[in-house]
């Protein structure tokens, strides 16, 4: 049997799946992640779901060619709509913007239990997405950042927080205080900073250089608009410095 190869991003997602779990892959596209999970004995049963018929048909062809029809169930579904509650232990959602993933989670809230693990890879609105997770009771248990083909990617593993409501409330209160530290946690990821993720450090240095260059250009302009922009840039630089401080501890 021909073994499917995954991108670095999807491979990172696959490696976060708890072995033996039933997986629902939302936005499965051509079905590569479900195929990999089955071929590598990570999951015996995967539900491949997509809202678009074209990619789902392609996934169906790929799955049939590898004779995995009895292991991978294909479903046309808008988000989690076609998933039954407790049908899957793991839900993966990758390759979408943070707002769209949040919308999928919100619409399918009744399909997610405290025993479910969610592995999510938002491509945009990442700060707002982390804030959504926190304010809606999701606890980030693991996070990774990687660089592939010149792009930075975030992968978040989280669960509904059923263990310590007090701890959860304290963390929400801290982030709502809107300090430099709380904004740095939302922008760059508390888990990534505390675990000194090497790729995040590379990203922070890149962002720092970029903002310093922009500030230099704006600094040469004399206007109220430029003054306001300088304040925004300086705050971003403070957040970046806060993040880089973790690598000096």
How would the blueprint of this fold be written?
Layout: H1 8-16, E1 23-26, H2 32-39, E2 46-50, H3 53-65, E3 72-76, E4 90-96, H4 98-107, E5 117-122, H5 126-135, E6 138-148, E7 151-160, H6 165-176, H7 180-188, H8 190-194, H9 198-219, H10 224-245
Helix pairs in contact: 4-5, 5-7, 7-10, 9-10
What does this structure look like?
It is a single chain. It is elongated and about 65 Å long. 34% of the residues are buried. The chain has helices at 8-16, 32-39, 53-65, 98-107, 126-135, 165-176, 180-188, 190-194, 198-219, 224-245; strands at 23-26, 46-50, 72-76, 90-96, 117-122, 138-148, 151-160. The protein has two domains: 8-176, Vaccinia Virus protein VP39 (Rossmann fold, 3-Layer(aba) Sandwich); 198-248. The chain contains ten helices and seven strands. Strands 3-2-1-4-5-7-6 form a seven-stranded mixed beta sheet, sandwiched between helices. Helix 5 (126-135) packs across helix 7 (180-188), helix 7 crosses helix 10 and helix 9 packs antiparallel against helix 10 (224-245). Strand 6 (138-148) and strand 7 form a beta hairpin. It starts with 7 loop residues before the first helix and ends with a helix.
Quick tags:
249 residues, alpha/beta, Rossmann fold, 2 domains
General shape: elongated
Q: What are the low-pLDDT stretches, counting only 5+ consecutive residues below 50?
A: none
Care to count the β-strands?
7
CATH superfamily (homologous) name of the largest domain: Vaccinia Virus protein VP39
Strand coverage percent: 15-25%
Number of domains: 2
Mean pLDDT: 91
Q: Helix count?
A: 10
CATH architecture field of the largest domain: 3-Layer(aba) Sandwich
């Amino acid at each position: 049997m021909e073994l499917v190869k995954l991108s670095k991003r999807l491979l990172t997602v696959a490696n976060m799946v708890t072995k033996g779990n039933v997986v629902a892959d939302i936005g499965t596209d051509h079905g590569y992640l479900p195929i990999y999970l089955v071929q590598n004995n990570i999951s015996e049963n995967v539900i491949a779901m997509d809202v678009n018929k074209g990619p789902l048909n392609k996934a169906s062809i790929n799955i049939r060619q590898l004779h995995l029809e009895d292991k991978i169930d294909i479903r046309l579904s808008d988000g989690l709509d076609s998933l039954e509650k407790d049908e899957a232990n793991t839900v993966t959602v990758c390759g979408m913007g943070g707002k769209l993933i949040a919308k999928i989670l919100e619409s399918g809230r009744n399909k997610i239990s405290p025993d479910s693990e969610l592995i999510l890879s938002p491509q945009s609105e990442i700060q707002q997405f982390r804030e959504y997770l926190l304010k809606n009771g999701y606890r980030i248990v693991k996070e990774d950042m990687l660089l592939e083909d010149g792009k930075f990617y975030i992968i978040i593993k989280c669960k509904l927080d059923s263990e310590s409501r007090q701890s959860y409330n304290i963390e929400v209160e801290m982030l709502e205080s809107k300090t430099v530290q709380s904004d740095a946690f939302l922008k760059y990821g508390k888990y990534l900073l505390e675990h000194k993720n090497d790729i995040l450090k590379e990203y922070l240095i890149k962002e720092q250089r970029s903002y310093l260059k922009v500030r230099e250009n704006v600094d040469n302009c004399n206007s109220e608009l430029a003054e306001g922009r300088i304040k925004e840039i300086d705050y971003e630089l403070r957040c970046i410095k806060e993040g880089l401080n973790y690598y000096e501890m």
